Amino acid sequence: MAAFTRRPPAVSETPPSVPRLRLNPIPHRGAVLDGGWWPRSGDPVAELPGLVLAIDDRLGPVHLLELGVTGWYHRPDLLAVAGRAIRLSWSLEMPPDLVVAVGRNGTRTRLLVVPPGATTFAAWSALDLAILSTNTEKAAETMDVAGMSPPSPRTAPETDWESEGGELYDEDRRAHPSRRVAVSREERDGRTLLRISGDIDLMTAPGYRTRLFEVLRDGGDRVVLDLSGVTFFSAAGLSLLAETRARAERAGVDLRLAAPSARVVRLLELTGTHGLPPLHPTVREALSR
């Protein structure tokens, strides 16, 4: 516990809330960000304890947070969290959309900070981009790309997307019952072709993830994803493809993307294909080469 030489640590008047946080499950040395966080307000005393506890559980004890001075109501030097004092380091040079959690062993977890007033769709899109295993965009650039992604016209109401516990982003979440996950499978000379159709967004990505991971477990040496039938593609789709590629590499499967629809191409033009499976213009090329 840090020594209280100047003033006692700031104490929150309310219990720590479950943070709207996404951490990269597969950290990558080349990644600029390790995840993203969407605070509910600009009050550091109310918002930071829940963040610290969540990082403690996943990555080990935090002893220091580095933050920018912009966007926060006040700037305490010490913060009481679970019986210990966390030091807060405020800097004019730190971007307002970045927070760095430093562990006792010196490890640094860099998180995108989504503005509290961001729209629900833009916020969760930004969090999906932030956890891409090989993201190379700075925090501000990630928010810019998320803001360019329009929400699906068939997306469920915002009240269905997120509760105080962030249930939508639990690992066991399920797609909204009104959204259909459409995947057809075809075997061609020992190679598996999956034709994906419909929207890939915040609500449907969990269902697609379950289906794709099932195929990787029992599919052939090569799996091709036909994206020509995708009618909407958000940052959640990018995150899904990056996760699927990582799973395929561990399983020794040659995963390829083919025939992206105009919706897919539009987002890939903004973000690039770094960290995603190889992309082919046609299904025939992806299967044959």
Automatic annotation (TrEMBL):
Residues 1-20, 145-184 are annotated as: Disordered. InterPro entries: Anti-sigma_ant, DUF5994, STAS_dom, STAS_dom_sf. It comes from the Bacteria. Residues 181-289 form the STAS domain. Pfam families: DUF5994, STAS. Residues 159-170 have a biased composition (Acidic residues). Belongs to the anti-sigma-factor antagonist family. This is Anti-sigma factor antagonist. It comes from Nocardiopsis lambiniae.
